[in-house]
């Protein structure tokens, strides 16, 4: 029996019960479905803040400080030309700037402007708040176990 999952505007999973969903989901299928929920949250939050989901991802990535174009390309899984176009659009909106990489004059790093940093923090906080709300009913020990497992998966994938 196939299980149909629907994500509503609040990021809530509807269309089936959690027990029914867990009954026949494999680990990989659960991760794929969770990635859809995360993508939906990014899309919903970015729309509210007037940016695209890709722009929201870029802003969130840069909240930790400047990142080089090569590293951004790897982190966002974008070809160099696609990343350049994304950076150009966000730069035109005044949210980021390119600066010469102090270690390599031929390369540049992308850095948030003050306005971009404020927006990036707001977007990141809202995305995290919505995802935290999804897991609010999960006991702390299970949340810790899930967090640890996901952290290991992220480390193995070199994200």
Description:
The chain has 159 residues and is of the alpha+beta class. It has a single domain, classed as Winged helix-like DNA-binding domain superfamily/Winged helix DNA-binding domain (Arc Repressor Mutant, subunit A). Helix content is 62%, strand content 13%. The chain is built from 7 helices and 5 strands; from the N terminus they run E-E-H-H-H-E-H-H-E-E-H-H. The protein has helices spanning 18-23, 27-48, 53-62, 69-76, 80-92, 114-134, 140-157, and strands spanning 6-7, 13-14, 67-68, 96-101, 104-112. Strands 3-5-4 form a 3-stranded antiparallel β-sheet. The longest helix is centred in the N-terminal third of the chain and has 22 residues, at 27-48. It is globular, with a radius of gyration of 18 Å. The two termini are 34 Å apart.
Any key phrases for this structure?
3-stranded antiparallel beta sheet, Arc Repressor Mutant, subunit A, disordered N terminus, single chain, 159 residues, alpha+beta, 7 helices
